[in-house]
Structure formats: structure tokens, C-alpha cells
Amino acid sequence: MVGEQEQQESRLTVVLALAANFGIALAKTVAAVITGSASMASEAGHSFADTANEVLLLTALRRSRRPADRRHPFGHGTERYIWSLLVAVCIFGMGALFAFVQGAQAILSGETERKSALVGYLVLAVSAVLESVSWRQAFRQTRQEARADGQSILAFLRSTDDPTTKSVLFEDSAALIGLALAAAGLGLHQATGSAVWDGVASLLIGVVLTIAAFLLGRTNLDLLIGRQAQPRILEGVKRVVTAAPEVEALVDLMTMTVGTGEVLVCARLDFRDDLGAADVERACVRLSEELRANHPEVYEVFLEPVPRDDPGLRRRVIERYGRPPYHWAAGER
């Protein structure tokens, strides 16, 4: 399970992003009113959406750590994915759609008036500094966790089961890109006197936010459906159970992520025929303890003794994975 230090680190990342986004949103709103810039208004809407998102992420961190109970025997870990999925919806619904509307209005208005952009530039500069502070914290935590898992940052972002830091990193990355687009739109509007450039910048901000929302939404949807454990955990489980002297074959292995740093392990094992019931029971207890000791992410372990030559079981495994069971695939007896 996720350690307390990692929980505190994630909470710090979200709180820092919350404070930065709220201050930036207020400043951008004032600048949008003064300059009349569509891209600045889009950025203000984006920052308000990000502020709401951080509140959702803090809620996810708090509620997902509730202990298991009678109605939820596997805990509340997947609740983090639901709240994080709402973050993706908010990024699109509150940020991207607002940016698209602002951009379309600016392009269709045909406005040619030149407006003072000094306030806009100052707000964008300050916003970039604050967003960079938040982005650096999220990036630092992501890099630290990727190194702990022995992965590159990109590989870690694809495989991580913690959407919190990933959400902040994606939000802040989209925000920094949006700031650059807003500055470009403001500058071109000032240089040409045409609001079309400002509108185009706003539309591009909407595209960036849509991409960020899609990537986050896909990640959380995958986790909510029930993604298997990371390859290193799968290989570790295989090594432990197949090395046990009581086990002749690993017939089937199913894992599912039930929360951040929480993995459910279900394995069907063919035990030696000369073992008694008590021997099998003791072996199951020992293997469960070894799996938890080797992999702190293992939340619950279910081991089922089965005959490896059962045709019905073999057929179900092939239907699920498209290949024979483990001991058949390895060429074992």
C-alpha cells in the first residue's frame, strides 16, 4: 500500500497547485476584463477549472484512504479514480469548452480595436512563475516515484496507478502551454489590431485542454475497469509461487489494481499430490506472507488449489488470455 510519506507528498503537490491556481485565476480574470482578451478569458476559465480540480483531488486523497468495512471489503481505493475522472471532465467541461466559446466569439466579432496589453503581459509572466513552481513540485514527485519503480518518466506515467500527481502534472503542463499561447495571441492582437489571432490562441488553448482531459480520462477509466498489476509485480508473484516446493505448476494468475498501491492477487496452483490438506493450508498461508513481504502493494491474496489438467479451466484461461495456461505455455508437463 502507499506509504504515509507518499501520501503527504501527494497532498503537498495538490495543495501547492490549489493555492497557485486560485491566485492565478483571480489575476487572469482582472486582466481579461481590462484587456478584453479572449485568450486571457480562456486562461482565467482554465485556472478556475484547475482550482476546482485540486479540490476534487484533495477529496480523492482523503476518501480513498478510508479503511475497508463490511460493505466495502476491499477498501475505498478505487474512489480516487472516480474523483480523478471528474477532474478530467472538469478540465474539458469548464476549461476547454469555455476556451472554444471565447475563441469563436473573438473570431466572429471582427474586432479591430487595439487594446492595452501591458496588464495582460504582467499577469501572464506572474502566472508562468507560479505555474512553474507547482509544475516543478509535480514533476519532482513524478521523477522520484519513477526512479523508485526503475522506470523512465514516460513509462511511469503510462503505468502508474496513482492519478493524483499525474493529474497535477498534466494540468500544469497544459497551463504553461496555454500561457504561451495566450501571450502569442495577445501579442499578435496588439501587433495587427485583429482579434482573430486572439481567438485562434483561445481555440488552441481549448485543444490543449481537450488533449489533457482525454489522457487523464482514459487513464482513470482503465483503472476503474480493473487493470492488472504492473509487470514487475506479476513477475515477482510468479517467482514466489513457482519456487515453492509444494507447488508443481502455476495454472492461472489474475491480478487487479483496487487502489493506488493496492493490488489484489488471485492464483490457481497445482499442489503436489502427496500433500495433505493441512500441508496445502500451511503452504497457502506462507505464500501469502511471502507475497506481501516481497511486494507491499499486494493488498489481498487468494490461492486456489486446482488440477492443472482440468480441460474446463484450461479452456477458460485460453479464452481470457488467448494462450494456454502458464505451465503449458512454458512447456512444462
Automatic annotation (TrEMBL):
Family matches, as InterPro entries: Cation_efflux (IPR002524), Cation_efflux_CTD_sf (IPR036837), Cation_efflux_TM (IPR058533), Cation_efflux_TMD_sf (IPR027469), SLC30A9 (IPR040177)
Subcellular localization(s) per the UniProt record: Membrane
Topology versus the membrane: Multi-pass membrane protein
Pfam families: Cation_efflux
Transmembrane segments: 12-38, 81-104, 116-135, 195-217
Superkingdom in the source lineage: Bacteria
Official protein name in the record: Cation diffusion facilitator family transporter
